[in-house]
Amino acid sequence: MIKNKSSKFDFLTKERHNEAIDSIIAFFQDERGEKIGIIAAEEILDFFLQTIGDDVYKKAVGDVKKLLKERMDDLDIELDLLTEK
Question: How many degrees, rounded to 5, is the angle at CA 13 between CA 8 and CA 14?
Fold first, then answer.
Protein backbone atom coordinates (compact mmCIF):
# COMPACT_ATOMS: atom_id res chain seq x y z
CA MET A 1 0.00 0.00 0.00
CA ILE A 2 1.29 3.47 -0.86
CA LYS A 3 1.76 5.79 2.08
CA ASN A 4 0.33 9.27 2.02
CA LYS A 5 2.46 11.66 0.02
CA SER A 6 4.92 13.30 2.33
CA SER A 7 7.19 16.30 1.97
CA LYS A 8 9.94 13.91 3.05
CA PHE A 9 10.11 12.84 -0.60
CA ASP A 10 10.14 16.36 -2.04
CA PHE A 11 13.93 16.57 -2.07
CA LEU A 12 14.31 16.55 -5.86
CA THR A 13 14.74 19.90 -7.56
CA LYS A 14 11.97 20.76 -9.98
CA GLU A 15 14.43 20.24 -12.85
CA ARG A 16 15.52 16.80 -11.58
CA HIS A 17 11.90 15.83 -10.90
CA ASN A 18 10.96 16.73 -14.48
CA GLU A 19 13.95 14.79 -15.85
CA ALA A 20 12.90 11.73 -13.84
CA ILE A 21 9.32 12.00 -15.11
CA ASP A 22 10.57 12.33 -18.71
CA SER A 23 12.81 9.28 -18.21
CA ILE A 24 9.94 7.20 -16.87
CA ILE A 25 7.71 8.18 -19.78
CA ALA A 26 10.51 7.40 -22.25
CA PHE A 27 11.20 4.04 -20.57
CA PHE A 28 7.62 2.92 -20.90
CA GLN A 29 7.50 4.05 -24.53
CA ASP A 30 10.89 2.60 -25.57
CA GLU A 31 10.99 -0.59 -23.52
CA ARG A 32 7.35 -1.56 -23.25
CA GLY A 33 5.73 0.22 -26.18
CA GLU A 34 3.27 1.83 -23.77
CA LYS A 35 2.29 5.46 -23.60
CA ILE A 36 1.84 6.84 -20.11
CA GLY A 37 1.14 10.40 -19.11
CA ILE A 38 2.74 12.76 -16.65
CA ILE A 39 0.35 11.83 -13.83
CA ALA A 40 1.08 8.11 -14.17
CA ALA A 41 4.82 8.80 -14.33
CA GLU A 42 4.60 10.96 -11.19
CA GLU A 43 2.71 8.19 -9.39
CA ILE A 44 5.40 5.68 -10.38
CA LEU A 45 8.17 8.03 -9.20
CA ASP A 46 6.37 8.68 -5.90
CA PHE A 47 5.79 4.95 -5.42
CA PHE A 48 9.47 4.13 -5.80
CA LEU A 49 10.62 7.04 -3.67
CA GLN A 50 8.25 5.94 -0.91
CA THR A 51 9.07 2.26 -1.31
CA ILE A 52 12.86 2.34 -1.53
CA GLY A 53 13.76 5.95 -0.77
CA ASP A 54 14.67 5.25 2.86
CA ASP A 55 16.86 2.30 1.87
CA VAL A 56 18.73 4.37 -0.72
CA TYR A 57 19.20 7.17 1.83
CA LYS A 58 20.49 4.79 4.52
CA LYS A 59 22.94 3.23 2.03
CA ALA A 60 24.20 6.66 1.01
CA VAL A 61 24.68 7.72 4.65
CA GLY A 62 26.54 4.47 5.35
CA ASP A 63 28.81 5.05 2.36
CA VAL A 64 29.57 8.59 3.52
CA LYS A 65 30.28 7.39 7.07
CA LYS A 66 32.71 4.79 5.69
CA LEU A 67 34.44 7.36 3.48
CA LEU A 68 34.75 9.88 6.33
CA LYS A 69 36.14 7.20 8.66
CA GLU A 70 38.77 6.28 6.05
CA ARG A 71 39.69 9.95 5.59
CA MET A 72 39.88 10.50 9.35
CA ASP A 73 42.09 7.43 9.73
CA ASP A 74 44.38 8.80 7.00
CA LEU A 75 44.46 12.20 8.71
CA ASP A 76 45.25 10.55 12.04
CA ILE A 77 48.20 8.73 10.45
CA GLU A 78 49.46 11.93 8.83
CA LEU A 79 49.23 13.81 12.14
CA ASP A 80 51.12 11.00 13.88
CA LEU A 81 53.86 11.24 11.23
CA LEU A 82 54.13 14.98 11.80
CA THR A 83 54.67 14.52 15.52
CA GLU A 84 57.34 11.85 14.99
CA LYS A 85 59.65 14.23 13.11
Answer: 110
